[in-house]
Structure formats: C-alpha cells, structure tokens
Design a protein that fits this description.
There is one protein chain. The chain contains no helices and 11 strands. By secondary structure, the protein is mainly β. A hairpin with a 5-residue loop joins strand 5 (47-52) and strand 6. The protein is globular, with a radius of gyration of 14 Å.
Length: 127
C-alpha cells in the first residue's frame, strides 16, 4: 500500500518553531516530487505549502518563503518541513502529498495534481 504517515504536529505559540515529518512507504520515494500541503480548520480544499523535487530542488509558497524549509531524506523515505516564526494563520492540518503532475515556470513550482496524501498532522499556533 502506498502511503505517507505524518508526525510532529502539536500546539505552539506565535513566533515559535515546529518540525513535521512524513515517512513514505509502498513506492519508490526517491523517484517522486513531494509536497507539503495544508488545510485550515473550517476551510475546504488544501493550500500548497512547499515542494521538494526528486532532484532536491525546493520551492515555497509566498507565505512559506523565509519561514519554512522543506527537505527530503531518500535513504529514510522521509520528508521534513521545518517551520519557524509560526503565526496563528499557520494553524492547519499538514499533509504530505505525492505529486502526479506539475509545471515549473519562471522559477516557480505549480503542482497540478496529487495522486494521494497522508492522513495529516495537526498544527495549532496560538497568539
């Protein structure tokens, strides 16, 4: 079974840091682009956070630039998202997602479709 298992979520105060991770299984992790996406409470749909390509290139949404760092460890089939200077608006469930299709244009990464995501890990940032 192809899956991601996320961990590391929790409750922090505004300005603090938190690292979340996901472990992949059931597929060749090193051959895939992987994204972190998030869904805020009460909102429909997911918001793209960051991507790390199979070649190790990294891309970030505007809100994540300068605060979040995505990295991958192909030996451990793991992707990490290090989050700093957290804000209450970062409160969400964070998911790893395998990218099915994407475009890179003008130095920006555009995930077009995900073929599956994990169950997510909850991050709550209090003010």
């Amino acid at each position: 079974e192809e899956q991601f298992v996320e961990s590391g979520g929790g409750m922090v105060q505004s300005g603090e840091s938190l690292n979340v991770s996901c472990v992949a299984s059931g597929f060749t992790f090193g051959f895939q682009d992987v994204c972190w996406v998030r869904r805020a409470p009460g909102k429909e749909g997911s918001e793209w956070v960051a991507a790390v390509t199979r070649n190790g290139a990294t891309y970030y949404s505007d809100f994540a630039k300068g605060r979040f760092t995505i990295r991958r460890d192909d030996e451990k089939n793991t992707a990490h998202l290090q989050m700093s200077s957290l804000k209450p608006e970062d409160t969400a469930t964070y998911f790893c997602a395998r990218v099915e299709s994407n475009r890179v244009f003008g130095g920006n990464y555009y995930p077009l479709a995900y073929d599956f995501k994990g169950q997510g890990t909850h991050v709550t940032v209090s003010s």
